[in-house]
Amino acid sequence: MPAMTNRVALVMGGASGIGLAIAERLAKEGTLVFLTGRRAVDVEAAAAQIGPAARGLVADASDPADIERVVATVGEQGRQIDALVYNAGIMEPADLKETTPEHFDRHFAVNVRGALLTMRAAAPRMTAGGAALFLGSVADVKGATPYGTYAATKAALRSYVRSWTGELAPRGVRVNILSPGPTDTAMMASIPDEMRDGVVSQIPLARMGRVEEVAAAAWFLLSDEASFITGAELYVDGGMAQV
Questions:
Q1: Structure pTM?
Q2: Family assignment (predicted)?
């Protein structure tokens, strides 16, 4: 039996990019996937692309009420959560001089507070043997000018995962963080070509990652194949943060 058959997953930020690829991989493995996004048109398109194994929910990952509603909706289906993925995030450039309180608050509201509130809401509904996975970044250990605030949020998220690992272990819930390197997504396409080329030059494998490669690693960490792995950070970065 496949390692994720007849399971239920909630993918926050699953309407595009890496989140959508993870949702697709989970559905392919026999998991019922609830995925969220901020725009109804994107959520509907993602759910349609995956097919009958997907349920789309419009939600703002920075809104506590939306997070509670999404988790409650899964419960209303009479199901608990076997796999939780938090992929929601923003990445806006600003050097030190340009960084404003508003810039800081936007990033931490989605990338960190949203992750915290999602874990808090979902934890009571997670099954023993279940797993939570948070999307980090190589930026949590590398400088990321002019994305310093984004990098700081990922470092904070890594710290939270360590704490949640110990807190949830007695309930049999594993918590890990998956940290991609530069990956060919719409977010990465938004940065200037010169900056993209500079990023690729730092990757030993000399290319960006593909969303399917990140999704494969996510599936592994969420599945029973990783039943003795918790508190870990897995880099899918072509060696960028390793050498």
A1: 0.95
A2: Belongs to the short-chain dehydrogenases/reductases (SDR) family.
The DSSP symbol for 97 reads: T
C-alpha span between 235 and 214 (Å, rounded): 9
Closest CA relative to residue 89, chosen from 107, 63, 70: 107
Q: Are 32 and 73 in contact (CB under 8 A)?
A: no
All structural domains of the chain with their residue ranges: 8-234
Please give the average per-residue pLDDT across 28-32, as a whole number: 96
> Which residue among the candidates 142, 154, 160, 235 is catalytic per the annotation?
154
pLDDT band at 70 (very low <50, low <70, confident <90, very high): very high
Residue 1 has pLDDT above 70, yes or no: no
Q: Is 142 a catalytic residue?
A: no
Q: Quick one: which of 82, 38, 35 has its CA closest to 61?
A: 38
Inform me whether the pLDDT recorded for 2 exceeds 60. Answer: no
86 is catalytic: no
**Distance, CA of 61 to CA of 98 (rounded, Å):** 25
Peptide bond into 192 cis (omega under 30): no
> Residue 174's closest CA among 87, 81, 61, 64?
81
> Strand, coil or helix: what is 132?
strand
Burial class for 133, CB neighbours closer than 10 Å (0-12, 13-18, 19+): buried
Tokens coding 134: 């948070």
* Res 164 pLDDT > 50: yes
Pick the catalytic residue: 28, 97, 142, 150?
150
Q: Which helix (H) or strand (E) holds 115?
A: helix 114-122
Are 125 and 76 in contact, with CB atoms under 8 Å apart? no
